[in-house]
Amino acid sequence: MINNKIKYTEFIKTEAKRLGFLSCGISKAEFLEAEAPRLEQWLNNNSHGEMRYMENHFDKRLDPTLLVEDSKSVVSLLLNYYPSQEQTANSYKLSKYAYGTDYHFVIKDKLKELLHCIQNEIGEVNGRAFVDSAPVLDKAWAAKSGLGWIGKHSNLLTQKVGSFYFIAELIIDLELDYDTSVTDHCGSCTACIDACPTEAITEPYVVDGSKCISYFTIELKDNIPSEFKGQFNDWMFGCDICQDVCPWNRFSQSHNEPLFNPHPELLSMTKKDWEEITEDTFKKVFKKSAVKRTKFSGLKRNVDFLKD
């Protein structure tokens, strides 16, 4: 049985690599005891702002066995999205993760294939794929599985790789050989805290989501509060500031996933182009993009907020 656990674990990690994942770590599916009080405190402080969905399924967020019956293992996976080219300097900015095809579709397909490979190789294994759209604490599981540590900006960080990657999970009813967590390597650095223009990182490792530029430009459906005028540093969808200034991201290397390459027009669009964007251009440039989440009207609102 022990040998099988090791054999199956090695098989899953090899297949994950073949499918293009940066890395794969595995944890025992169990209640996340350390995260429970942190999540409760974060919600009590209203750090989720209008993201009311964060209040739902509190127990499921902390216990994978409530999401997948008889689950034994959480397989965490990282997929690089760091681009080889960035937008022109005279532009309103998009978070780098949104340059190409919506990651939900790209990763979901890879996860389904991974589960299919596991079932073909091992037999009847039941499980579910999760990509940032269900009550799963992705970063906590990735950290528990040894894929990195949670940085002071609350993103997962990995030595030699940085943080420009997506996190996803397969929760399965198969016992495997489990990884152990790694140590924190933020040290005395406060680059992310010092650089955040809206002071959303209220203390090391704690982000007030309701002050984050990503929250304002993506999640918030109402008007952006006027007191934040002039603090967005030209970010119109998401924000990468805390990642861009992180010393560990000096090691970021470009992804090799063609679906994450941007629409040809995207990188050369100037502020003037964004200010004059039509709905037709929006649909063309962001045909399969995560930017569709904010809709044309949302992006226009963000651009107007930046330019006035």
UniProtKB/TrEMBL annotation:
Belongs to the QueG family. It is found in: Cytoplasm. Residues 174-206 form the 4Fe-4S ferredoxin-type domain. InterPro entries: 4Fe4S_Fe-S-bd, 4Fe4S_Fe_S_CS, QueG, QueG_DUF1730. Monomer. It comes from the Bacteria. Its cofactor is [4Fe-4S] cluster; cob(II)alamin. It is an enzyme of class 1 (oxidoreductase). Pathway: tRNA modification; tRNA-queuosine biosynthesis. [4Fe-4S] cluster 2 binds at C196, C212, C239, C242. Catalyzes the conversion of epoxyqueuosine (oQ) to queuosine (Q), which is a hypermodified base found in the wobble positions of tRNA(Asp), tRNA(Asn), tRNA(His) and tRNA(Tyr). This is Epoxyqueuosine reductase. Keywords: 4Fe-4S, Cobalamin, Cobalt, Cytoplasm, Iron, Iron-sulfur, Metal-binding, Oxidoreductase, Queuosine biosynthesis, tRNA processing. Its EC number is 1.17.99.6. Cob(II)alamin binds at R61, D132, L156, I167, S214, C239, D240. SUPFAM superfamilies: alpha-helical ferredoxin. GO terms for molecular function: epoxyqueuosine reductase activity.
